[in-house]
Automatic annotation (TrEMBL):
Annotated stretches, region: Disordered: 239-268, 290-340
Compositionally biased tracts (Low complexity): 239-266, 291-302
Record protein name field: Magnesium chelatase
Pfam families: AAA_lid_2 (PF17863)
Top-level taxonomic group: Bacteria
Biased composition (Basic and acidic residues): 308-321
Organism: Actinomadura napierensis
Domain ChlI/MoxR AAA lid: 196-230
Gene3D superfamilies the UniProt entry points to: Magnesium chelatase subunit I, C-Terminal domain (1.10.8.80)
Amino acid sequence: MAGAASDRVGTALSCAAADDRLSGVLFLGMPPRTLVEVARRFADGFGPLVVLGAATTDDGLWIAVDAGRDGLRIVPGRLAADRPAVAAVPDLARLSLAGRRAAVSALGADVAHVERHGLSVAWRPRTRWLAACARADAARLPPHLLDRFPLRIDAAGLADGARGVPIHRPPAGLPVPALPEDAAARAVELAGPDAGTRTDLALARTARAIAALRGAGAATPADVDEAARLLGLLAGPGPRAASGASGPADPIASAGTADATGDAPPRLVTEPVNAVIPMTAEALDPAVTEPAPLAGASPGPSCGTARARPDDEPGDAERLPLRAPLAPGRGRRDARGPSIGTVRATDLHDLAIVPTLLAAAPFQAVRCPGHHEARPPHPLHLAAADLRAHRRAARPPLMAVLLLDHTAGADWPDALAPYLHWMYTARATVGLIEVGTGDDELRARLLTTRNLLDPRVADALDRPPGRATPLAHGLLLAERLLRRELPAADAVLLVATDGRGNVPLSASRTGRLVPPVSTQGVDDALAVAARIRRLAGVRSVVLDPGPRPQRFLTARLAEALGAELRSAGDPQDTGPAGEPEW
């Protein structure tokens, strides 16, 4: 699986280098750190590398400040130039609003414009965008953002690094391969009658890039088939692959599925193969949403029945992803949200230094006639009218992390009803961690949703229990999620469990349970809980399911977390409206 993923990733990068119209490549299941390594290798000798994330702003992308002999002046930024560059997005689902607007505006466009702070620039975008995204998050990305990534590759088997990824670049100066009528007709046939124009274009352009990499002057129907295998729209014949025949060593010929060899003609499929990116939530496995892979755990093959192209409309994607959220109410400005511009400052709170200097620079000769000729140079002369403050977007919502123990034997839907109602009315982003399911009894599973309306939350509440309780692993996933979200949002951790964790953390990491276990699982859970207690800004609550043997375990867990201990269904824990009194 790792070798096939390496070939697919290498072929996609080689096609992106060969054709600047294949400027967007999305890798499904690739860890963020691996994406940065891949982008750094791809950018070597190609152009500067720009890493985009949750803190990316418009000013950081489109403009820059140049300090010359004539003072400060605004120049085109990192992406606003007619030169090759590489934009790396380690997690496309967490890309900022400014970064998403930049991708929608520049990717696949013939010309881009910037009118900002007096700078007027028009150029032909030549930046290659390399992005990674978790499989479960792909179904919830806006469809017009996914449209900008014609190459979407399954890279789940590339978790060990990017050193073995083969990247080939065609020699400079070669003409673009032609697309004969038979190859164009094959692309239309493989795309299907219901596909949009972007599917046809993606197939045709990828086929021409594959032809360019092998030095051909024109693309053939075989190149179109190879491109379809890379995009997951075509599966190879099965008989020769089943007999153990080995595929070609060329990464372009081996970029498709494992059964892509043989003499029989390829068959068109409507279900995904290895390179397919699921586009609907029903085809996703919530178990793959863990923020970081455990040591020794190997990702499984892709599964589902969803199509891979952006023409399919996701059922629960964001409806207004490029619109900024509502501004916060009156009161002191919040300095924790991302900066989306500047305003005149009325106090010294949250000053924007560079915009302040830019506002003062044009008036230096007026305020000091000999300012530019003075030796040594004068510092800038500032006035109160020059002060600028950041205009920040609304702070991210509250993060509510619910750890649900299915083996506790409680009626959790009824017991959690007031807490779920509070999460909904507070518009909290929900992180749901399930412990003790029958799917993978040695590991917990993590699901991150924008709110409680996600249908997978209701499915999780009704899931039958398993036979083991990896409580320590569930708390470890909660710790990782809280550390990732705390810089931007407050957090509440609700642990619904009986405290009887019988799976050590080592068994969750390796996938093997080595007896005897004794109290190691409980000790590991208490150790992780003690680390969570040291996180500032987290309020924890432990929900006890009720009378049972070894009830003291929940008290020990609450003490280690520094949490309040409450009983499920206790009417004293809810207010007049039925919501929990925090």
